Amino acid sequence: MGIVAYEIAKRRPAYIHGIDVLKPHTRVARSIFLGSNVESRFDTMSLGSGKLQSVLNDRYDIVLLLAVYQHVRRGLGQEEADRIFIDIINRTQTIVARVPDEDDIRLQSLIEGAGFTLSDRHKSPRGSTVLAYHRH
Question: Can you identify the CATH homologous superfamily of domain 53-136?
Answer without folding.
Answer: Vaccinia Virus protein VP39 (3.40.50.150)
